[in-house]
Design a protein that fits this description.
5-stranded antiparallel sheet; 4-stranded parallel sheet
């Protein structure tokens, strides 16, 4: 753990996320679809969770009242309470079959005065289309009877009545979609962070510090490069020239997972020249490199430095954007 206190390369982490941004977008889309799909399956496809809603518009024709007390009494808040009292509920139940309960009717009914105190909106919501229609019909009849019975009204008239409709979406669908999206984003970001932490492959010189104090000599490229690549190549050539003069000669040792370590170490130990390690970009992990360096050091090999070959130029441009 000699280098255990080395900080995280946040720039490399950011580039890691940018390169895989499509995964984040795809996960967000899949999460949103799954969240909305599960909600719709639970509330629409499964018959027991379906909801049907029907609505009626009721016109309240009040009798003349100079005091205005009747209008104050029959306000929006009171109407919702009145629907569950004997004044209306008893009549509503009389128009329904015996298998309907008062509790069912009360929980299914919503009465609202939205704007005009003379216009009452009745909304019935149940899990069955037929029961929704019957409760609405019975409620409307009970209100008409009330208009004929109570002295505060001239009459009560049903001016509009809708058929029960399946509630496919509501505000909770959006919430389900957002919850699915957020959960998916959190999981994929956590997963990518773990992948980044566990990925100890070597990409940049900073990755070498966790393994060895050998100097980083430079990047080498086997393909044609642009201006930045040429600058890297020039720096490498100058560093190699300096090391050759300092050590008297260099022997290149290329490390890779497909290489025979024992044979490489044996040949390198016999050489009098200093050894220059060459590792492939992003293909060898720190643990493997540390093991091979220890083996070379044990056999008294003179290690001069490390080269990273075949680097991704697009990554290099982002990482060394101010070079």
């Amino acid at each position: 753990m000699k280098y255990g206190n080395e900080g995280m390369d946040l720039k490399k982490l950011l580039l890691f996320l940018i390169y895989r941004f499509w995964i984040i977008v795809l996960a967000a889309v899949i999460g949103a679809v799954l969240g909305g799909g599960i909600y719709l399956f639970h509330n629409v496809v499964l018959e027991n969770n379906r909801e049907y809603r029907a609505e009626s518009k009721v016109y309240l024709n009040f009798a003349p009242d100079e005091t205005g007390e009747v209008y104050q009494y029959y306000n929006g808040y009171t109407w919702n309470d009145l629907m569950s009292t004997d004044l209306i509920l008893d009549k509503t139940m009389s128009y329904l079959p015996d298998d309907y309960t008062a509790e069912e009717v009360i929980s299914a009914t919503l009465a609202e005065i939205l704007s005009d105190v003379r216009l009452l909106t009745i909304t019935i919501t149940t899990s069955d289309v037929e029961r929704t229609a019957r409760i609405l019909e019975a409620t409307d009849k009970a209100l008409v009877d009330m208009g004929q019975r109570e002295k505060e009204f001239i009459d009560i008239e049903i001016i509009k009545e809708t058929e029960p409709k399946l509630l496919v979406t509501d505000s909770r669908l959006l919430q389900a979609v957002l919850v699915g999206l957020v959960i998916a984003l959190a999981l994929v970001l956590l997963g990518m962070a773990l992948v980044y932490i566990l990925d100890d492959r070597i990409y940049v010189p900073g990755d070498l510090k966790c393994v060895t104090q050998l100097p980083f000599v430079g990047f080498s490229f086997t393909q044609e490069t642009d201006e930045l690549g040429q600058r890297f190549q020039n720096d490498l050539e100058k560093n190699l020239e300096y090391l050759t003069q300092e050590t008297g000669g260099l022997t290149t040792l290329e490390l890779g997972k497909d290489k025979d370590v024992s044979e490489q170490i044996s040949n390198s130990a016999q050489a009098d020249n200093a050894i220059l390690l060459v590792i492939p970009y992003g293909k060898i992990d720190r643990s493997s490199l540390a093991y091979r360096i220890e083996q070379l050091s044990l056999r008294k090999c003179n290690l001069a430095g490390i080269i990273i070959k075949d680097a991704d130029m697009r990554f290099m441009k982002w990482y060394y954007n101010h070079l």
